[in-house]
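User: My instructor asked us to take a sequence, write out its structure as tokens, and then describe one feature of it. I'm not sure where to start. Here is the sequence I was given:
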Amino acid sequence: TNNVEAFGGVSARNAVLMDQKTGRILYGKAMHDSERIASITKIMTAILAVESGKLQNTITVSSRAVQTEGSSIYLKPGQKIKLEDLVYGLMLRSGNDAANAIAEAVGGSIEGFVYMMNEKAKEIGMSNTYFSNPSGLDQAGKEHYSSAYDMALLTKYAMGNPNYAKIARTKVHRAPNTAESWDYVWKNKNKLLTFMYKYSTGGKTGFTKKARRTLVSTASKDGMDLIVVTLNDGQDWQDHITLFEYGFNNYPLTKVLNKGGIKEVKDRQYKGHIYLKNDFSYPCKSCYPCISP
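Assistant: Let's start with the prediction itself. The structure tokens for your sequence are:
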């Protein structure tokens, strides 16, 4: 799986290619190392907001929420905005102010939301992860890290939610702006989605001076869904395309079991009583059929 020469390799310090349906790792490079992750943190912030059931609620932006550095959607204290629109601003434009406003709306406070983030990380099985804020900003004296593998696990989990998947694949979103006379129009920063890769289905960009470029992206082709995560990668757009093409070309989805009765069961108690509701497919690098008769 980790034969870099098989497809030319990637320039990322950490990378992983995962099959979204099965979780199978098709390629990994230092994928379990804990590193700074920058704004791909916002995938966790977004899925918690989606799962809160409050997307249609209108919230009032606090003065604390807008007191943040880095990328912004230029919210103003006292401004009223729908939580769903904040999630679009978070995912498409990477607004750190949106991240804080979401945290306060969903977690009661930024600190309360950070607790939720870390609890969700444990639930998903992200064992090399710790969050200290909802945006991914590097903060002096505070640890904030994850691994390429953990971020792929998170993305696999998040993409299972149709509302999250819809937001992640949105190229442009328009939202009302109660603080100005013009509406927000946000174009997704994910170039793979907007014009570089036709099979792209979403993802999240990230950058800080310490983390460098980080990127999570997803793609679908011929019924196969893949996830790529790269950390500290100056050539991330191209590396993601390279990894996706490697996965699609070398690991076709192969039907392992047909739906219906499983004949292989020998135990008398269960024989003739175990059935598969759907066909089971798995990404296989084999040259021979592995379908169960």
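For the description part of your assignment, you could build on this observation: The two ends are 28 Å apart (CA to CA). Try explaining in your own words what that tells you about the chain.
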